[in-house]
Amino acid sequence: MNISEYKKMIDKDNAFIKDEVNIDVASLSVPEMVFKYQQAIYEETMVLEFMEHEYDILFKRRWTYYLGKADPQEYKDESFDHKILRGDVQIFLKADEKLNLLRAKVKEQQLKLNLIEAHCKSIMSLSYNVGNAIRWKKFLSGDIG
Fold first, then answer.
1. pLDDT tens digits, one per residue of 31-42
2. CA 57 – CA 127 distance, rounded (Å)
3. 82 is in which domain, residue-wise?
4. CA distances for 60 relative to 49, 70, 93, 124, angstroms
5. 125 pLDDT above the threshold of 90
6. Angle 47-110-89 from CA coordinates, rounded to 5°
């Protein structure tokens, strides 16, 4: 799922919780929603791990490319006629389009995972808030205990 689909799912769940008049129903839905988001966290974490691994592999390939140690076929496919110093390789790596594209995808995946984790934490605190609401209603009805 992409980040906008997760945002829609979060908005839908938030609307359900907000619109639910019976706090007991909202409270009982917490474990189900937490499980749904924990599954998403697991899946998106696995995707992030894969993307980071792919980035490391590409980084090494591009590093050898800029040092002039890559397979000659790579230079035929993508010519590079510069001799660069070992100390300047980092400058070229930071400006590399292929690396930057993959780095942006990794960053987007991290942001998606952060969004899901933050929402999962807010759902877990919902049961605490529901408990407080129940105690408040008991207090207002005179049942102090």
1. 899 999 999 999
2. 44
3. 30-134
4. 17, 10, 10, 41
5. no
6. 95
pTM confidence score: 0.81
Q: Which two tokens stand for residue 21?
A: 């008049």
Residue at 99 is within a domain: yes
Q: Is residue 36 part of a domain?
A: yes
In a domain, 11, yes or no: no
In this prediction, residue 132 carries a pLDDT of 80
- Reading the block at residue 27, the tokens are 């409270």
**How many whole angstroms separate alpha carbon 23 and alpha carbon 128?**
12
- Return d(Cα 72, Cα 120) in angstroms, integer: 49
Domain count, the chain: 1
Instruction: Give residue-wise pLDDT tens across range 34-69.
Output: 999 999 999 999 999 999 999 999 999 999 999 999
